[in-house]
Description:
It is a single chain. This protein is an alpha+beta fold and 804 residues long. The chain is built from 16 helices and 33 strands. It has 4 domains: 169 residues, Rossmann fold (3-Layer(aba) Sandwich), CATH 3.40.50; 118 residues, no CATH class; 232 residues, no CATH class; 102 residues, Translation factors (Elongation Factor Tu (Ef-tu), domain 3, Beta Barrel). Helix 3 packs across helix 7 and helix 4 runs parallel beside helix 5. It is found in: Nucleus, Nucleolus.
Amino acid sequence: MAPIVAQAHHHRSTTKQSKKGFKARHATKGMLKEQSKGKVNSLSFELGSRKTPHQQVMSKFDRRNRAKQMRLNKDNEHAKATNVFTGKDGAPRIAAVIPLCSDVSTAAAVRSLNASLDIEDEVPEAGWIRTNVDRFKQKVQYLVVKRDLLATLDACRIADFVVFVLSAHDEVDAEGELILKSVESQGISNTFTVVQGLDKVEPAKQRPSVVASLKSYITHWLPSTERVYSLDNRQEAANLVRSLCTTMTKGVRWRDQRSYMFIEDIAWTGGKSAASEDGTGEVVLTGVVRGLGLKADRLMQVGDWGDFQVEMIVSAPLETRKRAKDEEMTVDSEGNGILERPTEDQDDLADLAPEETLMDDVTNYATSVAPSERKGVLLDDHHYFSEDEEEKAAPARTRRLPRGTSKYQSAWYIDGMSDSGSDLEDFDVEDLEDYGQSEPAHPADGEEGMDIDGKAMTEGGPSEYPQSEMFLDPSPEEEAAQIEAYRKSRKAEEEEDLEFPDEIELHPNVNARERLIRYRGLKSLKTSTWETEEDRPYEPEEWNRLLEISDYKRTATKFMREAWAGGVKPGTRVSVHVRGVPLQFQESQSRPIAMFSLLRHEHKRTACNYSFLLSSEHEGPIRAKNELVVQCGPRRIVINPLFSQAGNTPNNIHKFSRFVHPGQSAIASFIGPLTWGNVPLLYFTRDSSSPQLRLIATGTSLPPSTSRIIAKRIVLTGHPYKINKRVVTVRYMFFNDTDVKWFKSLPLWTKRGRSGFIKESLGTHGYFKATFDGRISPMDAVAVSLYKRVWPRGARAWRGEVEE
C-alpha cells in the first residue's frame, strides 16, 4: 500500500473579483448624434437592412448591370474628351516639346518622332508644325520651343501633351530645373519624357543604367512618369507617337473653364494705313477653338498684348478640305462664313466704375473728424481727450464715480470703464465683451495677449499708490547722452533676439503727434472695430470705383456656368477679328501663341488677394512693395504687393508684414484685374544684372475684397526709469508732454506680458508715470502699439519684350 502524502495548504492568489468591463462605445443617443455630426447613412445601412458581408453580396444580374453602367460611363467620358479630335476636321493634338538640357535639340526630337512613322516634314528650329499621322488617323501639332522660360510657359498653357527632352550625357542644369518648377506650378496636362543621344553612350551595357537614372530624376518632379522613351530607338519613338494619338487628355482645370485657342496665324488688316486715330488697328487671329465655346461678347486676352474686343468670328477651314456643294452654298448664304457677331451684351474695356456712380455714393458717407481738429489719438472707434481740453470744448457735466473718490482720483476715470462695478451706480460692460480670446497672443496684439488670470487692466479704478512726487527735467546734454547710450544697448539686444520687429525710434526733436497723425490704437487686433471713415482722406483715388463682390462664391459659380452654353463649338477652325490693337505690336518680335476668352467682369479692377508661399530655397526674405512679375492664368502683370497675415478674423483686420521669410506664407494684396475661380500663380523677380525672370514663390487666387483692412503696426518703446511697486516712471518713449497727453489713452504692454496705462505726465521732456498689473523688471521694456491702414498699389500689364 502506497504511503499517504499530506497535501499542503493552498490559498487563492487574490481576493479581488474581476468584473466585466464596460465596453459600450456609445452611452446615450445624444453621443450617437454628436458623433454622427449630421451625417446620413447610406441606404444599404438603414435600420433593418442586412449588414453582414455575406448578406450584402449582389446577385449575378446586379453585378453585370453595375459593370455595364460603369463601362458606359467610362466610354462616355472618353468620347467626350476625345470627340474634339475625331474626324477629318478634328482638332490637332497639341504637343509641346520642351528641352531641359543645354545639348538637346527639340527640332531633332520631332524629326525622330516623325521618322519612326516614315513621315518626312520640315521641322523649324523654333515654331510649330502640323503632322498628319495616317496610321492612327490623328493630327499632331508639335510646338518646338527653345530654352526660354516664358516661351515654355506659353506653350505648356495650351498644350494637351508636354514632352520633356533629356540628355544622355549632360545633367539638367539650374535653368532646366527652373522650367520644371514653373511648368509644374502653372498646371500641366499629360507628360512624357524622352532621352536624346542614348546610342552614343559607351559601353552599351551602361545604357539601361542611364535610363534608370533619368527615370529616377524625372519621377522626383513628375511622379506619374512610367517610362523614359529613347528617341534613338525607332520602336520606342513609334510607341510614343501612338500614345500621343490615343491617350485621353487629362486637361488643366482653370484652362478648361474658359475658351482658348492656339494662334496659328496673325494678320493685320490694311497694315499701318488702316490705323485709327488712336493708333490702333484690327488683327485677325486664326486657330482652332478649344475648351469651352468661343463667344464674341467676351473680351479676348491675346498673349502679353492685353485685352481686346471682338469684331466678329469667321469660319476658317483648311484649304485641303473638300466640301460638298450643298455645304458651300450654306456657307455662302451665311455671309462669308460669319459664325458669330457681338451683341448688345458685349463687354466693354472699362476697368473702373464710372465717376457718375461715385459722386452719387459719396454723399452718403459720414463726415470724418479732420486730424487738425482732434484732441487725442483714436482708440478703436472713439476719441479720448484730456479733461482740461474737454472742459474748454464742452460744458462741465457730472460723472458717476465710486463713493469716496477724490478729485485727483476722479481724473483717472473714463466714462464706461472701471476695474470693478461693485461701487458704481451705473456700469456698462458692452466694451468688455470682445476682450476674451481663447487662443494665446502676443502682448503687442492687444489685450488678449496681456490678460493675467482672466483680468485685463483698464484705465479706471481708485488709486492705491502714492501721489506724484517732485520731478526735475535733466539738462539737454545729459538727456541726449542717456538716449544714445540706451539705444545702443537696445540695438545690440535686438540683434541677439528679434522681439520687436515693428519697433521705431523717434528723434527727440520730432513731434510724435504730427509724425504719427495717421496712426491709431487698438485694444485688440482681432476683435476691435476699425473706424473706416477716418481713412477716407488717404484712400486711393480709384478705391471707390473698384469692383465690389458681396458673395464671391455664388457670383463666380454663376459666371463660370454662363460660359458653358453657347458660342462657337470647340474643334472649329476660325478667324477672330480683334479691334483696338496698338500698332507697336506689329513691329515687336514677341509673337503671342495663345488667345484666351475672359469670363464676364474679368477685365475689371478690384482689390486682389493672392496667397504667397516663398520658396524655402530662396536666399533671403522678400520685402513688401518690391516689384514682382505675376502670372495668373493667361495673364502676366507687374505688381508691388502688400503682404499681410492670413486667416479669418472677426473684424477683418490683418497685420501688415514688412518681410516674408523663406518658407513662410502670406497674403499678397494689390489692385488688379479680377480672376474667377482658383487659378495657380507664379511669382517672378528680375535681377538688376540680367532681365531673366526667376521663380521665387507660388500661390493661388483668393476672393477679392475691398473691405479687407491691412494694418501696419509700429511699436514705440520706453525705458522703466524708476519702479515703485506697480507704479513706474517711463522715459524715452516720448520727448515732450504734449505727446504724452495725446497718446495717453493707449494701453501699455511689456515684452514680458505686463499691461498697464499712462497715469500722468512728468515734466516737459516726455517722462510719464504708468501703472501696471504687476511688478515689472528693470530689464523689461515698456511699449505701445499703433496701427495705420495701408492701401494696396495698382498693378500694370506685362508687355514682354516691349516691357524690357
